[in-house]
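Render this sequence as a predicted structure.
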Amino acid sequence: MNISNAEKAHILVQALPYIQKYYGRTVVVKYGGNAMINEELKEAVMSDIALLKLVGINVVLVHGGGPEITDMLKRVNKESRFVNGLRVTDQETIDIVQMVLAGKVNKSLVQHLHKAGAAAVGLCGLDGKMLIAEKLITSEDIGFVGEITEVNPKVIKDVINDGFVPIISTIAGGRGGEVYNINADIAASRIAAELDACKLILMTDIRGLLRDKDDETTLIPSVNVSEVPMLKREGIISGGMIPKIDCCVEAVRRGVSRAYIIDGRIPHSILIEMLTAEGIGTMFY
């Protein structure tokens, strides 16, 4: 599709109020799903972040890496096992998780963002005691899966103040020297609250919260967090959406102005959410 110069100018003018609104503010993006695997979508995400950084908006990128961890476990002939959506993480597995997330995946994203034109620094929750956790207690022992007890944002703020984009892998430290695997949605929510972020954006492989999970035209564009218990009772929020939406609710209750679940399969979905009136996905407020 060819866009005329006048149309390009109109798009830029429409974006200006949002650039002014968010200038100097911090946005936390949880990066995952298809947008993290598909190279074309990955390039779109990185160019979005680079553009936001260039116009004065601070972006903090928090990422997981489930498919890469599963692939590495297969290479060492180790089967992945999950309990209620959480990866069972024994000592060998946590070593691989740390290597893959804080190493391969994190540094690859740093390189991609450099290529897009923004300077980045790769971090993990062990750096500067950023994420402190204790063992997550469930009905079945799932090993080194952690529950965040404390977030120390100083190292993230230092990186931002030095002009870099922090890219954070969600490994946390225990008080006894343990290393824990942390759910990336939960980590992003807690980090957003500690940074007093104006927005938390969770990138997923669905449009957002749907009134009918089998019909994408039934997208619910906005939800007051007080409505969430009712939507759960009605079955509209169910299954894998429950933990994601709980993260959004937690972020808003901890002081984040808005939290969003957006479709990372749509190219430039971050820019659409940040710099247009229409937005995309479901907003929690």
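Summary. The longest helix spans residues 91-116. The mean pLDDT is 91.
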